[in-house]
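User: I'm preparing a small set of examples for a lab meeting where we compare how different chains pack in three dimensions. I only have the primary sequence for this one, and I'd like the structure in token form so I can line it up with the others. Please keep the answer compact; I'll paste it straight into my notes.
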Amino acid sequence: MKLFIDANVIVDVVLRRISSDGKPLWATSLLLLDDIAKGKYEGVTSVLSLYITYVILNPKKRKKDDVLAKEKIRNLTSILKVVQLSNDILESALRETKLMFEDAIQFFSAKNSGANAIVTRNIKDFKKVMHEIRIMTPEEVLGMR
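Assistant: Understood. Below is the structure token output for the 145-residue chain.
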């Protein structure tokens, strides 16, 4: 199964995010990335997801944080294939009326990659396109193992 990994799943791991009720979101996201690294799933993401991750890791644009952020991005690209942001994806996202622009870029990147599902924390953001591609949380994917 080919999974498109949304930015928020990656950010879970790099920030070790915990939900408002104390659940370690990062742990299930990390398990999913580990399954991808082991070849249980094929993982893809977008240039946009990697850029969002970089900005979150280096918000003050410091050189030392730049080096660490780039190292984390390189590690991610060793297990996730990266969908290039093409003019076709951009134009499709600009025409899309059911999704916010950022989500539309992710949606069309996923579709362009041939992904079977988008894995995200924000199911509601993709609710209007659920009939076109499966939308899942990391926990739902891990529940299929």
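A couple of notes for your slides: The two ends are 11 Å apart (CA to CA). The first strand starts at residue 2 and ends at 5.

User: Perfect, thanks.
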